[in-house]
């Protein structure tokens, strides 16, 4: 920091930078810092609320709870008494966490098994109807979510008539079907940036088509696959409307179980805050663990902001 200030002063003294340029830089940095603080404030507030005593998000004296009352009671309740891990905290009865993991596993595994070969085929192969398939994928990426909500009643009636309304595996398949179009298009766009010459060189060296895919395409496509993995994970982990409509209490996922804590008269807000933080924690861990891959994948996939 000191070196930066010293360097800036030297640049102003030598005429390489003007005071106006320095002022713009300071104003921009200050504005960005204020924006980040505003965006992170709700996160900070909900974290402090989860450690507070009682059921309120605020103390009687202000917005924040009294730090002297901070404790882990809310987290103990979520982990050992609520339906987060085990149903009513009873070991042996899988709770909402297990239900969510089942849905996510089905969503991710089915999605990737279709997305990866589909993206490769659309990126590298020419076949009859290829453009129509691409146009169809674009269409579903734009209207898929809207159709899911608009046809919710019909979807519920269909699943009830087929006896599939309370099935976690079917719910995972439904999420996978919704995630495939967009993520296939995204990974296909990423694979378009992998030079064909790499494959040709491998084939010249005697590699089979499967070896080319396994040893050339997949390693180079890791950033794109990481992005797709996170997006499909989020599709199964965060979705609420369809899950609430189709599932019964014994099969509630974490998003629905979190909403079930809300009561018009006595909502346990500190427990709600702790539940929400633990619910969001896996997403944050996965993103930060794959941050470099994600940034690279979004950049090459044409989604850089």
Automatic annotation (TrEMBL):
GO-annotated biological processes: transmembrane transport
PROSITE patterns: ABC_TM1
UniProtKB keywords: Cell membrane, Membrane, Sugar transport, Transmembrane, Transmembrane helix, Transport
Membrane-traversing stretches: 26-47, 96-122, 134-156, 168-187, 224-247, 272-290
ABC transmembrane type-1 domain ranges (all copies): 97-290
Compartments it resides in: Cell membrane
CDD domains, A to Z: TM_PBP2 (cd06261)
InterPro entries cross-referenced by the UniProt entry: BP-dep_ABC_trans_perm, MetI-like, MetI-like_sf
Gene Ontology cellular-component terms listed: plasma membrane
Membrane topology label: Multi-pass membrane protein
Family designation: Belongs to the binding-protein-dependent transport system permease family. MalFG subfamily.
Stated name of the protein: Binding-protein-dependent transport system inner membrane protein
Annotated organism of origin: Natronobacterium lacisalsi AJ5
Taxon lineage: Archaea, Methanobacteriati, Methanobacteriota, Stenosarchaea group, Halobacteria
């Amino acid at each position: 920091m000191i070196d930066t200030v010293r360097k800036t002063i030297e640049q102003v003294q030598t005429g390489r930078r003007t005071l106006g340029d320095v002022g713009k830089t300071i104003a921009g940095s200050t504005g960005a810092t204020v924006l980040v603080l505003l965006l992170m404030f709700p996160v900070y507030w909900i974290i402090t609320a989860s450690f507070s005593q009682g059921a309120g998000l605020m103390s009687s004296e202000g917005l924040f709870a009294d730090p002297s009352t901070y404790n882990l009671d809310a987290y103990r309740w979520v982990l050992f008494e609520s339906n987060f891990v085990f149903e009513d905290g009873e070991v042996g009865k899988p709770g909402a966490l297990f239900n969510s993991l089942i849905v996510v596993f089905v969503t991710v595994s089915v999605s990737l098994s279709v997305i990866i070969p589909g993206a490769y085929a659309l990126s590298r192969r020419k076949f009859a109807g290829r453009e129509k398939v691409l146009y169809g994928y674009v269409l579903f990426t734009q209207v898929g979510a809207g159709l899911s909500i608009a046809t919710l009643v019909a979807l519920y009636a269909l699943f009830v008539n087929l006896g599939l309304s309370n099935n976690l595996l079917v719910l995972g398949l439904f999420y996978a079907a919704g995630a495939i179009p967009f993520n296939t298009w995204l990974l296909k766009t990423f694979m378009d940036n992998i030079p064909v010459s790499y494959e040709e060189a491998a084939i010249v060296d005697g590699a089979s088509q499967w070896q080319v895919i396994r040893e050339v395409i997949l390693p180079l496509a890791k950033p794109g696959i990481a992005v797709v993995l996170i997006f499909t994970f989020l599709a199964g982990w965060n979705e609420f409307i369809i899950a609430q409509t189709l599932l019964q209490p014994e099969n509630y996922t974490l998003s629905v179980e979190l909403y079930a804590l809300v009561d018009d008269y006595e909502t346990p807000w500190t427990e709600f805050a702790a539940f929400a933080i633990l619910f969001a924690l896996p997403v944050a861990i996965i993103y930060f663990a794959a941050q470099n891959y994600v940034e690279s994948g979004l950049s090459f996939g044409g989604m850089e902001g």
